[in-house]
Task: structure prediction
Amino acid sequence: MSTTEIQEEKKGLSTFEKYLPIWIPLCMLAGVLLSLYTELGSVIEASSVRGISVPIGICLFFMMYPAVLNLKGSELAKLGRNPKPILLTMVANWLVAPLVGFALAKLFLADYPELFVAVILLSASPCTAMVLVWGSMAQGNQEQNVVNTSLNTVSIMLFYAPMVALLTGIQQIEVDRWGLAISVGVFIGLPVLLGLITRAILIPRKGEEWFDRVYRPAFGKISIFALLTTLVVLFALNGTTILESPGHLLRVSVPLLLGFAVVVAFNLIITKLFRLKYREAVITVIIGSSSHFEIAIATAIAAYGVGSMAALGTTMGLFWEIPIMLGLVYLAKFLRGRGFWESGSQVDAPK
Result:
């Protein structure tokens, strides 16, 4: 494990980040109040280009860009050294989670196409950002974490649009496939390109230590504020809709919560059956159970509009994921204490 990763493991969440489960509902409430008592929603709705709100677009960029700063091509070359945890995570991300999400969406949301799509957008999007924090808190193998998030960043560009198109097509829900592909290109491809350019320019000049300790953390903080600002804006645009039909948010929450429970249980069992040791198992469980809510929100907005039920449905994924992932960290530590996995690490720390 590198010096930077060891420092991140010790540091864990900042004080502000620890209270994200509180900030998220507060931002939602603030958005609803702003929609009722101000003209903010109308102003934001007016500032759009081809159906995409400019303020939302800026926020989404700053949510995505910090995540791709973690992308390291050199890390992908290490996949062959210990492929089992990586392969199990990919199976969970690209097979188990999408199929579970589809089955539950079909069971509970067959008559609500936009909410159905919201669940698909969330379940088909493996996480590439916050899992670095969760893995650090759980004292998992951070090298594996970086490898997996780097691989996810690449694979989501290749598989996300086809997977969403396939699952929505089975349900005979019309989704603009070209629009979906363009969304992936804009909201993932562009940040990836700029992230790679940033690394290529700054690391030779400032050094990788400075990049990892100063530049990346600074944009990580901006990412959280952009995320919270996006929530305020989304709920400012949809406050009236929410108050008129709160049942929609509760309805989409049922398959989301059940999906988390099924996928987490699957990952716990599969890491146990494959005899992974704790530091590798916990990273596999965390990455395999989380979703890339940033791209899900961005795609929903691009496809259906910022005031759509699809956009609101994807925000509920964020609403539930933060406390669930925090709880999963503590559950993993509890299971480690009970000897659920073998202790130790399956790979030697890099020299």
